[in-house]
Design a protein that fits this description.
This protein has 337 residues and is an alpha/beta fold. It is 37% helix and 15% strand. The protein has 13 helices and 12 strands.
Length: 337
């Protein structure tokens, strides 16, 4: 029953995700006692360097959630972290002036940097951090390569965090690019995690900012399309339930203008079209919030099966209901009109 703990057994889940969406899934799986069955493949397009430290916001959000110290209110960083003048304005100019790190967050990045400087890959360093924290889940960046999201607008091009954090997502994007994609390959184990999982879940993360850099890696869409049980994508948009917090309003704005840059609207059916048209076969099932159940016909018109799960889907009740439905076995997507 929804909300009741279940044992993982032979069941396994691979989650493709950004930061907040991935953290929400991680929190729900942890509360269900299913985190030991999970592999999280995280977006690296948001990564940046601050004061000589490699910062991986999406990967770290998932790690912190699995550790039980993610700041759900802010949607990033460590809960109850301490911010001081030294942490708010680091020793060098540049990102430190507008991209603040708390003391615990900064120490986490230092531990990663020690490993990277010793020659460990990003995925190896992440596994080291997860192991040191005693995590049961596996967390892997999507690639070890320096793949970075860049936003182009009428007045120039910016790195992702410059656009989102420094400039408040105000410059209207005209194009989004993924710098370094040509030389990037999935991190070791990523394709196997997609192929071998009982369920693949695409978290309710921003399609353009968080999901696209993962799906663009060679072999990822092919691995998803080859699955007998199609991947399940949770809509990040609930059209009939507007965001109520300033954090979620800012995220909705950024998600909407990024979709618009590619010619897509900001509603569940348009997100489904984004998956179906640009990445055919990557996703076979699209999860709607009950408030948007009326959009099922529009989603199915794009060749995706529809599942409605209690809102928000990534609560214990919602995720438990979603996974219980997946355990009934694979279902084919409806034929295209």
């Amino acid at each position: 029953m929804p909300g009741e703990p279940r044992t993982a057994g032979a069941w396994s889940i691979t989650v493709l995700c950004g930061g907040l969406g991935g953290a929400r899934v991680a929190l729900a799986l942890r509360r269900l006692g299913l985190d030991g069955a999970a592999t999280f493949v995280t977006n690296v397009g948001d990564d940046l360097t601050v004061d000589g430290l490699t910062v991986c916001p999406d990967t770290d959000a998932v790690l912190y959630a699995l550790e039980g110290r993610f700041d759900e209110g802010r949607g990033w960083g460590v809960r109850d972290d301490r911010f001081t003048p030294a942490t708010e304005a680091g020793p060098t100019a540049g990102t430190a002036g507008w991209f603040n790190l708390g003391e615990a967050d900064r120490e986490h990045h230092r531990r990663r940097q020690v490993r990277l400087d010793a020659g460990r890959s990003l995925s190896e360093a992440t596994a080291d951090l997860a192991g040191a924290a005693g995590l049961a889940a596996r967390v892997s960046p999507a690639t070890d390569a320096p793949l970075r999201t860049r936003v182009r607008s009428a007045d120039g091009e910016r790195a992702w965090q410059e656009w989102l954090v420094r400039d408040g997502a105000r410059p209207v994007p005209t194009e989004v690019a993924y710098d370094g994609l040509g030389g990037a390959r999935p991190a070791p184990g990523v394709l196997d995690a997609i192929a071998g999982a009982a369920t693949v879940l695409v978290a309710p993360s921003s399609p353009v900012a968080s999901v696209a850099p993962i799906l663009a890696l060679p072999g990822v869409v092919d691995a998803l399309a080859a699955r007998a049980d199609p991947a399940v994508a949770v809509s990040p948009v609930v059209a009939r339930r507007p965001p109520v917090t300033e954090r979620d309003r800012r995220r909705a704005h950024a998600r909407a203008v990024l979709l618009a840059a590619g010619g897509f609207g900001h509603d569940p059916a348009e997100v489904a079209r984004w998956y179906a048209q640009g990445r055919p076969g990557a996703v076979g099932v699209f999860v709607l919030d009950p408030a948007d159940a009326a959009d099922a016909v529009a989603v199915e018109a794009h060749g995706l099966a529809v599942q409605v799960a209690p809102a928000p889907t990534t609560t214990v009740d919602g995720l438990s209901a979603l996974l219980a439905d997946r355990e009934r076995g694979p279902r084919p997507a409806p034929p295209r009109a």
